[in-house]
Amino acid sequence: MLEIFDEIKEEIKCVERELRLVVDDSDPLIKDTSIHLISAGGKRLRPAFSFLGGKFYNYDYKKILPLAVALELIHMASLVHDDVVDSSLTRRNIPTVKAMWGNKISTHLGDYLFGKSLKLIAGCNNYTISKVLADTSVRMTEGEIQQLYSANSSDQGIRDYFYRIKRKTALLIAASCQLGAVACGAPESVHLPLRRYGHSIGMAFQITDDILDLVADEEKLGKPIGSDLKQGIVTLPLIHALRHSPQRDRLKKILDDGGKGPEDVKEACEIIVSGGGIEYSNKIVQRYIDNAKRQLDRLPDITARHTLYTVAEFISIRKF
């Protein structure tokens, strides 16, 4: 995916350098855990979206860089906390901080990275950036709590699912697309379509993640297939199969029983696929992708717009 972002590859390199500088003067243990997390890589989507958003109005990457680093730190903090909650031992085929240093260190590392992001946000000296990211952080936590509360519940509806993934994933991507433009002084006529684009892309991205959890190549995915099912996380393909599969009663029993072994997970995945859960979810992804593209039509026809269009196309076909 990185080749899609060729026009901002130097900016992404700056983000990588700054991430390391942010933790360079830290306590040795904090530094070691932080560098382990940073070195594990990632798509750096949120910083990339912020730079691309800034391209639409008086672009100055130096105005966006602190914001871009802060966005990635918020994302990284949420991943560290997720790995504790989910007892995840690998991410992208690399041991998690939780696996190597345990829950207590991981929890505090997440808090530390979030605190570092707050310092960078304060340095932006921009009320809109501070307000949007404060609100986004609160709502991300609401989404995570809702996911815990609703685990193993077969009674969830599509509206519950959309509520959760909007907060868990889409809002931070929406903020990333919007705030790069805000940092460069863009008016609402520019930054609001970017926000709406980001929201649709974020929703499509998370639904695609939930599809891949069931059908992807495990090596490419970087985590075991069916991880969400094992944790009782109810996703869109599962919701559809629970409503429409001829084997929905068996699927409901697997979900409600809580303790799911490898054979249960394999059987559940097969029921979801045969029950049309993947096909239905792909259609919903395409609706969000189409809406994202419509938002781009409101923006100037520059290279960044074509890049964002390509990102939308990639999300609908990605395999990892």
Give the secondary structure arrangement, pairings included.
Layout (H helix, E strand, L loop, with lengths): L8 H14 L5 H12 L5 H10 L6 H26 L3 E2 L2 E2 L1 H28 L2 H23 L8 H26 L4 H28 L2 H4 L5 H4 L5 H9 L3 H10 L4 H13 L2 H20 L6 H15 L3
Antiparallel strand pairs: 1-2
Helix pairs in contact: 1-4, 2-5, 3-4, 3-7, 4-5, 4-7, 6-7, 7-8, 8-14, 11-12, 11-13, 11-14, 12-13, 14-15
Structural account:
- With 320 residues, the chain is mainly alpha-helical.
- The chain has a single domain (2-317), classed as Farnesyl Diphosphate Synthase.
- It is 76% helix and 1% strand.
- It has helices spanning 9-22, 28-39, 45-54, 61-86, 97-124, 127-149, 158-183, 188-215, 218-221, 227-230, 236-244, 248-257, 262-274, 277-296, 303-317; strands at 90-91, 94-95.
- The chain has a two-stranded antiparallel ribbon.
- Strand 1 (90-91) and strand 2 (94-95) form a beta hairpin.
- Helix 11 crosses helix 12.
- The protein starts with 8 loop residues before the first helix and ends with a helix.
